[in-house]
Amino acid sequence: MVYDVITHKLDQIPSLLSSRDPLGVEQQHCGIHSVQINPSRTLLATGARNTCDIAVYRLPTLDPVCVGENAHKDWVFDMCWLDDEFLVSGSRDTKMALWRITSDMADRRMDIPVHCSISALSLKECRNSQKVRALTFNKSYQEIAALSLNGYIHIWSAETFKQKLSRKLPSAQENVCLAVQDTGLYAIGCRSYTLLLDSRTLQPVKKVSSRYTGCGIRSASFHGDILTVGTGLGVLMFYDLKAGKYLDSSINSSRTVVLKASKGNVFPDEEFNDNAQNMKYSPSIYTHCYDSSGTRLFTAGGPLPVTLIGNYAGLWQ
Fold first, then answer.
1. What sequence ranges are listed for the domain DDB1- and CUL4-associated factor 12 beta-propeller (predicted)?
2. What is the pLDDT of residue 251?
3. How far is CA 175 from CA 77, 134, 150, 289, in A?
């Protein structure tokens, strides 16, 4: 779905079919888990109709470019661009794949939108991992950091696409999101705190508690010295790395600045209806990003319980 923030129009862009799913009868349509734009903002990579494959579109037109297939055997959870041509994907099958989308592919202009199929340049097991959950490219060190659901962070060389080391994290519970600061600091979202790691040593620098018990950190990003975290309770919080504390309200200094999401759309089952009177529902903030000016923030997510179906998107100014 593409929302134009100026015209307020919403467009649906079809998912791309893999060559192995010519009739779209595949069994792996499990949603999109990652949307990533390359540095020059000319290509967008995301999941294909088959959740084991990747799809690449041209920007700003969103014409189809290619589908990357036959690499992963399970859902692709995340991906990251290394530059304008090279892309890395990570999957629940514990594998990481390196793809190349050449300028020839990207520049093809067709009257009828068609896309080609490509294979991975390299496919490798991420050792000591169990389900690669999140990826980020550390440009300062030319490293790819991968987060796996068994509580490890893995460091790969972006130049050789070889795994260099793995480090067990203090918490093995719900390590689901990963971000990197330009200076090289990693942030990892866990069940009850955000862990800050020194990227040179992978040693913990600080545990930033979430202020809300049991909510889980579901998304994290750095914007200068501000760490923004989205939680499982529909709340966004802002941590000032220099001051070493959450941002205080300029109106009431005793209060912390938080953004609270609206309900969004939720389609409850009977269990939710039974408990609806006793609980206040909030969507989980699974992703967020700032615009180039840093004055607008996009947030999106949906229900955390697997028994609920729904979605949420918000634009903050």
1. 2-316
2. 85
3. 13, 9, 8, 19
The ranges of the chain with pLDDT < 70 are 22-29, 110-112, 214, 268-279
pLDDT for residue 258 = 92
Determine the pLDDT at residue 19.
83
